[in-house]
Amino acid sequence: MAAGYAWFLVLGSVFLCNLMKTLLPSISSFLTKMVQKDAEQESEMRTEIQEMKKEQSCISMMDEFARYARLERKINKMTDKLKTHVKSRTAQQAKMKWVVNIVFYILQAALMISLIWKYYSDPVTVIPSRWIAPVERLVAFPTGVAGGVGITCWLVVCNKVVTLGLSAMG
Amino acid sequence: MESVESTEENTGALSAAQRRAEIRRRKLLMNSEDRMKRIVGFAKNEPENNGASRRPTEPRFHLDLDRTEQWSSSSSSPRPSPFLPEASVFGSRSHSATPERRGSPLPGCSDSPAGSHDDDVGGVRQRPRGERASDDISGSPRRGLQKYLSRFDDAMKLRGQLANEKQPQDGGCDTEEFDPFRVFRLIGSILLAVFVRVFVCKYLSIFAPFLTLELAYMGLSKYFPKVEKKSQTTVLTAALLLSGIPGEVINRSMDTYRRMGDVFADLCAYFFTFILSNEILLFVGSETP
């Protein structure tokens, strides 16, 4: 028998999966921000460098060379520190992105397999078989119920429609 | 007399200094020439071969998917190096653009320059890309090596091209392109699905009106402005190009593939709307299938 809202359940699952897929970069960056506590330190360093540069621009290199050079060394040191910091942050971000992607695809695969498992023999919805002739067997695959809409066909259709809809909205 | 002698000594000293300066300058110039030659890719002993076997390392193969003319037009046209305007046509036919090839000159190339030019003219790189490999008159191991190396160059260039194109694609997140005709098709499919569910499906299979609609779209397509779609170099197209299939054929195949994709999208939208409207009608309870 066809579960009353099976078609809607599959549609909702596919929609959520596609929505999550589009939001993956935001999710991974959000998680990275959550994990990294020293983002403020980086911004502080940036402002400090800016200030030092501003100060350096006010100093005459000819008249106060020692002070100028000292400041220059300070700026260089701070810039190196910032570079190292940014490098490590970028590496962590890439790692987080990779982990989020892997987790998402594993969950998606699990969801799809469980849906197919659940509706392997039951069609997601049933319509008169003459309406979908001459491809009723193809549409009903793998249920074999005459006039039924099989999970595979419905998954493919939902996936395409949701992709189109999301890209039209995006 | 003394003054004359002193001026002669001065000029002698000056000329000696000038000579030294001149020698130094020439030495520097010669070094720069050597350096330039090294950059351009000449071996040190090549000037001894009357410069006949000079081979600039500039890549001379350019793959372009939009190109419609024969492959031979670009592959046979000589492209002299910008560093060597005096380079002859033979000299401009480069063998390699890769360090691997620069490091391992082909056997016999430096020994008999003239012979190597003759071989180059009849070699693999001279034949049009559309031709089959079996069209070659002879299949000597050297030709095989040349062919392999030229393909290797092409592959390296395609890799660079793909890497360049991948960056915008990553930002784009595989978005679908919506031109006006495509939007029109989708809306038409959705409206037809609703119409079929309400009026037609009792008497006819739902796919018959859809096929009619697709035929109508085929006729209508010429009345819509053609949107130039940027052909992207995918791994598949790169592989096809490297296997010797002309770009024009690949473009046509891609166009057909795109059309099939459009029809599939229409079918999905149509079927989805049909099922959705059927379920809504069932839910409302106005109708039973």
What is this structure's SSE topology?
The complex is a heterodimer of chains A (170) and B (289).
Chain A: H1 6-35, H2 39-58, H3 65-118, E1 125-126, H4 136-140, E2 148-149, H5 151-169
Antiparallel strand pairs in A: 1-2
Chain B: H1 2-40, H2 72-76, H3 89-92, H4 99-103, H5 113-122, H6 141-172, H7 180-200, H8 207-220, H9 235-242, H10 247-284
Helix pairs in contact in B: 7-8, 7-10
GO molecular function (chain A): protein-membrane adaptor activity
InterPro entries (chain A): Get1 (IPR028945)
Pfam families (chain A): CHD5 (PF04420)
Written account of the structure:
The complex is a heterodimer of chains A (170) and B (289). Chain A is an all-alpha fold and 170 residues long. Chain A has five helices and two strands, in the order αααβαβα. Chain A has a two-stranded antiparallel sheet with strand order 1-2. In chain A, helix 1 (6-35) runs antiparallel to helix 3 (65-118). The longest helix of chain A is centred in the middle third of the chain and has 54 residues, at 65-118. Chain B is mainly alpha-helical. Chain B is built from ten helices and no strands. In chain B, helix 7 runs antiparallel to helix 8 and helix 7 (180-200) runs parallel beside helix 10 (247-284). Chain A binds chain B through residues 7-8, 22, 125-128, 130-135, 149, 154, 156-158, 160-161, 163-164, 167-168, 170, and chain B through 173, 175-176, 178, 186, 201, 205-207, 264-265, 268-269, 271-272, 275, 278-279, 289.
Key features of this structure:
heterodimer; A: 170 residues; mainly alpha; two-stranded antiparallel ribbon; 5 helices; 75% helix; B: 289 residues; 0% strand; elongated
Brief digest:
Chain A has 170 residues and is mainly α. Chain A has helices at 6-35, 39-58, 65-118, 136-140, 151-169, and strands at residues 125-126, 148-149.
